[in-house]
Amino acid sequence: MIDLYTAATPNGHKISIALEELELPYELHALDLAAGTQKEPWFLAINPNGRIPAIVDRAEDDFAVFESGAILIYLAEKTGRLMPAGAKARSRVLQWLMFQMGGIGPMMGQANVFYRYFPEKIPAAIDRYQGESKRLFRVLDGHLRDHEYLAGDYSIADIANWAWVRTHSWSGVDTDGLPHLQRWLALVGGRPAVQRGITLPPSRLDRTASAEKTEQFAAEARKMLETGQSREKGV
């Protein structure tokens, strides 16, 4: 049994999707990020960085793993699925996983902060991160022109990138003119395990909600961001 400590975020959904795909038994523990549960001592013993997601593998002497990319690799290697064993094929998966970890995630995350959460709108910052996110989308689109999935067969690379790219509208980035990316988004999103994984835990954000409700969610997230910054500064 695996304990999954998570929240309804792209990084959290990477792991719930992977666990559903791999059909591994797990117990979901949804953390209240607004309350700062992820900063409590018991959780810091699992993940010293105080972020979700993290897992504890009870079958392996309560082995803890944090960082979403590291968790995906651990689960793939544990089961022998979602990542090939051959050196070159494995490298292709890891390359696209690192593309998400070092590019898609950080750029879209910063776009979210400046576009949605900061009370002061800074156009140069918004343009910078939305523009870089769209550039990375074009990289994916170009690669997917000749590939059904990112690295051969469906893999943890697809899970990691999809979990973030699907949220593009929240970052204020469109997928117009990127037909191969759109095709891949629909393909991965149509998998039953993926559909289950993005509901665990349920998100309080309805991406089809009215502008008023969307702004209310953003205001709450903004408050959580400010509280987290104060907590990390020891205020």
From TrEMBL:
It comes from the Bacteria. CDD domains: GST_N_Ure2p_like. It holds the Pfam family GST_N. Gene3D superfamilies: 1.20.1050.10, Glutaredoxin. Residues 86-209 form the GST C-terminal domain. Residues 1-83 form the GST N-terminal domain. Keywords: Transferase. Belongs to the GST superfamily. This is Glutathione S-transferase/GST-like protein. It comes from Pseudoduganella namucuonensis.
